[in-house]
What we know:
2 domains; 12 helices; homodimer
Amino acid sequence: MFKAATIKDIAKELGFSASTVSRALLDSHEVSIETRKKVKDYAKKINYYSNPAARSLKNSRSYSIGVMVADVANSFFSQTINGIESVAYEKGYHVIITQSHDLYEREAINIEHLANSSVDGLLISMSAGTTDYSHITKLHERGLPIVFFDRIIDDIKTFKVTTDNFKAAFDATVLLIKKGYERIAFIANAPQLSITSDRVNGYKAALEANSLPFEESLVKYCFAGGRILDEVTDAIDGLLGLPDKPQALFIASDQLSKASIRALSKLSHHNDLAIIGFSNSDVIDLISPHISYIKQNAFSIGEIAMQMLIKLMESKYPIYNFETKLVDAEIYWNDNFDL
Amino acid sequence: MFKAATIKDIAKELGFSASTVSRALLDSHEVSIETRKKVKDYAKKINYYSNPAARSLKNSRSYSIGVMVADVANSFFSQTINGIESVAYEKGYHVIITQSHDLYEREAINIEHLANSSVDGLLISMSAGTTDYSHITKLHERGLPIVFFDRIIDDIKTFKVTTDNFKAAFDATVLLIKKGYERIAFIANAPQLSITSDRVNGYKAALEANSLPFEESLVKYCFAGGRILDEVTDAIDGLLGLPDKPQALFIASDQLSKASIRALSKLSHHNDLAIIGFSNSDVIDLISPHISYIKQNAFSIGEIAMQMLIKLMESKYPIYNFETKLVDAEIYWNDNFDL
DNA sequence: GTGAAAGCGCTAACAC
DNA sequence: GTGTTAGCGCTTTCAC
């Protein structure tokens, strides 16, 4: 196997000591400009790159960060990853991605694994299956920089970034009401997720602001978040079987939107139903039945999360005033639903 | 910041030397069973994990591998990544993912970056924009283990795994012919990709096997691979504008399928056109116009690629007889096209 | 069966 | 402005 050039090779060739070479490479002002230039030129010539393992060992930093998402195949997450990557790359960080598949066990194991692989920081979107946060608080207490994005948790004090879910749900609900749909059912994600309560609350607030009643029976929680189709089918069957059928459907996540559309496509009597759902799919506009949709600014969320993490990792002093940034989503109304 | 336990901490506590502890942790037979047990128990108790940077430095191995795909948001690739991850994880490897966005420059930079971050091996699906392979051959010659998956290249001798694209295209074309569609147009990806020529050849062979003529004018290459919608729209417009209009459309990639459907959805006079396209989208069956589709076994391809890479990385002796594994795809016929 | 010591490649305190 | 030296945490050869 190929043997990479080291600082010693450069030192020997140029007649300097290893430390001078190291300093020159780091652009230290202690080293004369000429020496710096000579060293860097030669380094480039022989294709020298500092050994990351040695650097990590010495600096106790790995220059890699870990990302925990539910599933990379989910459009929202893959777009977020693109945002994370674009910032990380520019700043010289590697991105190690792991998936929880919305399972607590996978999340706990993966996060442990990442932490022990000495990532310098963690970007986490909580798994839907997680209710016990001790695996994360443990790391956080140790001082590992962590930023939460998308599915955040209140218990841990750190930087967080997510869609303004309350506002998005509020606006979307108001839009439905404005368009004449007053009896609106809500298909919700697992109740323990932050995004779930925020979205439900936005929906409730919109009803209230328009003096419409909130009915518990119109809200269906899906604990598997759309991973199990039956759960969604049952929810929709339940809603459409109500004596006073809803006129519109608000679907509170990407996965759920897909599952709901699949469930609805098998029914014949849904054409009078207006549907609005969260979705970041790039083909949502081609899917039938056509729906209106709320698209999150996934790329921005990724960028912001990574910027926050860098701030946390590179800060010389402990940070105490943490910020939770809310990013606006965009609503795309489908004209088919205009009454 | 938290300070992790080291081998020395264990040694001091238990009254052994660091070397004995190291050996015990590695289950060396030189160490007595009792000592091994004592050391491991204590290590577990204090939550000891060996420092990966130190291990990397000493062993010149990082236990991480790099993956190069066009785009994680592409269903085929995200499914492949799931396969890669499942095997990597089990074997204790970290997966570092980078994306080329089908741009040569990004591919070259990212691969260089990965290689210099001392990944132990590389899993590569070529970018559509790449025609010069020197950035890869250079690494390969140095002895860096590389496995190609999906979009492979002939020039480099190593393990490769991909869908049996010839067979998939052959079978799909034969199916169209059997169903009565004889004049079949072909929307192809960038011509320099292995998957493109294999698929075109399968299509040609199927025509020939059924004594049908191959017409150059019915094949449209999309150099941006569907990233630029206009390219696809133009191709389809061109085909539908032919004096002797095609009866069926064969679309040779996931991206192109999406783009083609989008283009077709804007046209009104496509209903008599039978469409079959490659797609690994989980909502392809909900998209209209409905198409028949060829789904690749993406997860398996990922698993196999990772297994091959491990074989390459962990082999004590250089390997010379390389294998190219072909994985079967599945064809889903849409009954709407039955004449 | 266990310990001492060297060294992987790099950085930084301390010399001069 | 540059060199010497020690040490990050681990593995491994060489002793006994």
